[in-house]
Task: inverse folding
C-alpha cells in the first residue's frame, strides 16, 4: 500500500466529469445510495444550480476544477467515437487540461477501453497495447498523457468492456431490436466474428465503487473491468432471432473485425473486490422482447 494514496471514503470530495451522462447518472445514484454525499456533477450542459458547468476542452474550466480541490476526479467524458474530431479533442487537449487542473491532493480516475489491446487471443493489464481503431487509439493517447502528466499515486486507469443497460438509446442492442420489429436489413462492417464482453451499467457502477473503496490497496496503475458475458456479432444475431422469433436479412462484410480480443482478464479487479455481476445479457434481451410486446 502506498503511503501517498488517498482513501476513497464517504468523506471524500468527488467530482464526476460527464456525470450527467449515461454512465455518470448511474454512478452518481449508486454513490448516493451508499452514503457518499460530497459529490459534484460536472458537464458542459448542466446548469450552475445542478453542478459545475465544465468543458474540459476549454482552458477556462481548469480553474473551476482547481478551486474545488477534489479528492477524486472521475473522468467519464471522452466516451464518444463519432464525430471522431470531437473524440480527438476530448482525449488530447481535454486530457491535458484535466491533468493541469489536478492539484497535488487530487487523484484522477480515467475510464478507458479494453479496445486499447487490439486483437489477439488473450490480454491482461501487462499486455502490450496495440489499438486498431481511431477510438481505441485515442483512448490509448489519453492514457499516455495521464501517465506522463501525473505521478503514480495520483492516477488510475480503468479499462472497461462494452456497457449496456435498460435506458441505453444507441448501440448494437437497440439496432438489433429495431431491426427485429421491422423489415430492415442488418448491415455490419465485419464478417460477424467480432467478439465483445458486456457489462451492465448498474454492475459497472457497483464494480467501480467497490474498486475505488480499495484504491489505496491497488498495486498497479491500470485495472481491467470486464463483463463475463462474451458474445460475437453472430452470437447476438442468433440470440435475437431466437428471442424475437424472427429471421434477419443480413449483410456482413467479408473482412476481419478490429480490436478483436478473444479473452481479457480482470482477475486483479475481481480478487481485490470479490465482485460478481447481478445482471446478465440474456435476461436483458429477454426483457427487451417482453417490453416490445
Result:
Amino acid at each position: 500500500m502506498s503511503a501517498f494514496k488517498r482513501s476513497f471514503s464517504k468523506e471524500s470530495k468527488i467530482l464526476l466529469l460527464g456525470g450527467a451522462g449515461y454512465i455518470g447518472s448511474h454512478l452518481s445514484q449508486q454513490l448516493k445510495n451508499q452514503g457518499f454525499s460530497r459529490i459534484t456533477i460536472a458537464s458542459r450542459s448542466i446548469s450552475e444550480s445542478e453542478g459545475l458547468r465544465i468543458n474540459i476542452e476549454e482552458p477556462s474550466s481548469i480553474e473551476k476544477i482547481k478551486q474545488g480541490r477534489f479528492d477524486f476526479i472521475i473522468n467519464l467524458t471522452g466516451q464518444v467515437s463519432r464525430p471522431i474530431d470531437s473524440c480527438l479533442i476530448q482525449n488530447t487537449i481535454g486530457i491535458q487540461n484535466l491533468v493541469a487542473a489536478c492539484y497535488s491532493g487530487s487523484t484522477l480516475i480515467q475510464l478507458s477501453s479494453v479496445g486499447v489491446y487490439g486483437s489477439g487471443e488473450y490480454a491482461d493489464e501487462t499486455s502490450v497495447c496495440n489499438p486498431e481503431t481511431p477510438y481505441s487509439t485515442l483512448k490509448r493517447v489519453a492514457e499516455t498523457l495521464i501517465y506522463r502528466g501525473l505521478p503514480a499515486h495520483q492516477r488510475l486507469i480503468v479499462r472497461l468492456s462494452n456497457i449496456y443497460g435498460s435506458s441505453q438509446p444507441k448501440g448494437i442492442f437497440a439496432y438489433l431490436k429495431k431491426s427485429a420489429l421491422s423489415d430492415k436489413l442488418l448491415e455490419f462492417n465485419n464478417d460477424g466474428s467480432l467478439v465483445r464482453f458486456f457489462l451492465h451499467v448498474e454492475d459497472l457502477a457497483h464494480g467501480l465503487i467497490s474498486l475505488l473503496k480499495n484504491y489505496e490497496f491497488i498495486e498497479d496503475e491500470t485495472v481491467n473491468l470486464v463483463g463475463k458475458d462474451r458474445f460475437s456479432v453472430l452470437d447476438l444475431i442468433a440470440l435475437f432471432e431466437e428471442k424475437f422469433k424472427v429471421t434477419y436479412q443480413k449483410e456482413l462484410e467479408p473482412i476481419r473485425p478490429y480490436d478483436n480480443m478473444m479473452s481479457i482478464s480482470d482477475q486483479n479487479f475481481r480478487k481485490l473486490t470479490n465482485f460478481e455481476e447481478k445482471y446478465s445479457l440474456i435476461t436483458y434481451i429477454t426483457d427487451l422482447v417482453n417490453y416490445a410486446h
About this structure: The CA atoms of residues 8 and 215 lie 7 Å apart. The two ends are 53 Å apart (CA to CA).
